[in-house]
TrEMBL record:
The keyword Transmembrane helix does not apply. This is Rho-GAP domain-containing protein. Pfam families: Exo_endo_phos2 (PF22669), OCRL-like_ASH (PF21310), RhoGAP (PF00620). It comes from Coemansia aciculifera. GO terms for molecular function: phosphatidylinositol-4,5-bisphosphate 5-phosphatase activity.
Amino acid sequence: MNSSVIVDQPPGVLLPTALDATRVSNPTKEAWILHALKKRRTEFLDSHTTTAFVGTWNVNGRAPASPTALASWLGFIPKDSGQTALTSLPELLVLGFQELDVRAEAFVYNNAVKDVEWTDAIEGCMGSTQHAYRKLASKQLIGMFIMVYARIDVVELVSDVQATSVGCGIMGMVGNKGAVAVRIVYMDTPLCFVCSHLAHDAAQVDRRNSQFHDLCKRLLFTASNAAADPLVPLNLGIHGAGSLGRPLTVFDHSYLLWLGDLNYRLAIDTGDMADIIARGEHQSLLGLDQLRIAMMNKQAFVGFEEAEIGFAPTYKYVLGTSIYDEGRRPAWCDRVLWWTRPGCEGGVRSLSYDSVDSVITSDHKPVRSRIELDVWKVNQDCRQAVYLEVLRELDRYENECIPTATLDATIVEFGDVAFGQLIRRSMKLANSGQVPLEYSFVATPSRPHYAPAWLRISPDSGMLLPGETVDLLFSVLVDERTSASLSTHAEDLSDILVLHLNRGRDYFVQVQGNYLTSVYGTSLDSLVHCKSPVRGMSRDDFEQCLDSGQFSVPVCVWTLTDFLSRYALDRGYSLFYWPGDRSLACHVRECLDRGLPLDPADILQWQGNSEDHVARTVVEEPIQLEMRQGSSRVSMTDQTLVPSTLHSMFSNMDMANAPSTAEALERLSLDPWAVHPSYSHTRVVQNGQDIATGSDSDLESDQQELTADQNNMLTTEALPEAIASANAPHDTGVDTVANCLVAFFASLPEPLVPVELYSACVEAGGVSRAAALEALEVLPPGNLNVLVYLLAFLREAVERGATTTMRVAHVFADALLRPPVGRVPSESDSRMLCSFIAFLL
């Protein structure tokens, strides 16, 4: 195939660049905008009229006709060599040919070569007028060939010239049938010219219809900066213009001119067609024209127009004559049609439309049409101004029906937030519009829920009538489900919420607070590596601790158990039967978070105001305080916090070589209290003996409250089998510290015994101690270390009569073990878990 390259393409004019405007994608709005722009088009369009000569001819594979025959087809060529006024010539010249090359090798090897021969013949027949035109583009596909010329005085007005071709013949691909096409932009008006050759034979009407639709889809041009519609500013997306980046179709133009041998025949043979045509009554046969029938039935060429046909059928003639071939039914195979895009209606007018009966070199007569086109030069600034005015007008109409709201604030500040502390803030939402308002907080692409897990909003959706208001209540609560990432500063206690109004705008509400890092809610994996108080640690500090590879019993666990050992077990107080004081619990938690010792002077002599405060057993002799610095204790940074006799096994040892769960738990009879961290501390002296460790601290008053489930881990009712222990002396301060120990384990994001072991532990609780130990064989070393330490303390408490095995099992079962998501513990599960803890003790 010899495919001509675009030659002598004019530089054209600078077309508009992308405009910074809002895209319009709603079809209804698009139609309204186009209608409004059309009414005001005179404000930004300078209208001009241009003429185009459009000719089509199926040459039946013949050599080029004589210059005389070609000149008679063109019609505007002067008969003598005299000069012709330039302005009398059409501005555009579009010529289409079919069956230009019918040689077998042209189909087989796709190497048609007759385009140059015919180009020379056409230009040669034009005589002196050939200098009045410059070829813009040409394209050949085997037998199909199109040429587009522009008059030399308008060449500068043409830009963005492109050519393409598509075959749809044999197997739907071969170029014996198909189309060639050229696209240009004249001034600021995009034009497309298509020359096609469709399936032959009267019975192939459905195939011709199908080929038309196939060509419309496959004839594509490269997207460019030229607008597809002079009414619409660039990059606005109306009607999917090529500026959006997708390829341009033949319909992405103001005007589409379609010419060629369309091969539509007469639907039936009346038997006397030759006589009807001879009498000049061929108009009566147009009702049988398959093309008109297809257009009327919307099967093909929908929306296309054609000038009135006043000439006889152009096919089929005996070669060298103007006599119809009696073996074929006459038909108007050769046609010129046009289509205009919405907003450009009436922009194409036919000046003439006929065939040339005197040309007899083919079995088709050549057809020609002279067409007048309305083209536009766009004033870009004026068009943009008009477009924005139209958008503002549309926006004004829409705003009258758009709901609007007012918020009395856009930032919700929670201040300092502690673990388990419920804080509420409110914001007022008012309907300030004239229509009912439907509101809701909506999710964002980065989060499937409208708010983070630590925040609740009530109500989160609703409706307000004009003038109505509602108080939106924002509640923040950090618990074991949401604390892990906040505790290590991987996330902040802040977010931006989206309040959406149905059919209205979105409002952005910022919520923020300062989470006070606490041992409560911090993962055990982080705590066993921490050597500093968590309140003062940064995100980098947590990451460095995790990278150290060293682990120990969390300092907060040692602090609580050491206090209980000294001031509960040694004094004969009962444990785990009574709730503590809420305010005192906050004080204890603050000490744990800041790494401060628990001062018995503050705790054992606590004067809380809670109604359930129980009178304590008074120490016989007054407590005296003596300040001492230093300690002979082993540093917490150098050693693992386990019972002293197990320390030799755990310190300086690879975790992979730690003792088995069964071996570790079998040694719980050993003394667990020989090792603990050292502090600069206060000695509490009674009768000359050290009885406590603590320090004076200047803590701010903490008005925060723990949630009910953490405050009441211990029931006020004693178990039936433990009445004696429950009636033993007890101290509210000691009870508070004991409650804090249970609450700490309950607050872990991942329980001490991992969730995946829950089912095995429940099952083991109904079997034996050996089964319980076996269920914990896969316990991580850090968790095992803490469990051994805790059980050692609890066994000591049971042996010294401060509590009972079943009471400990009842209290710690829910704190140490947690069911997987979706599993609701049954009464049987609870009994089995209590038995499991009892086995471990």
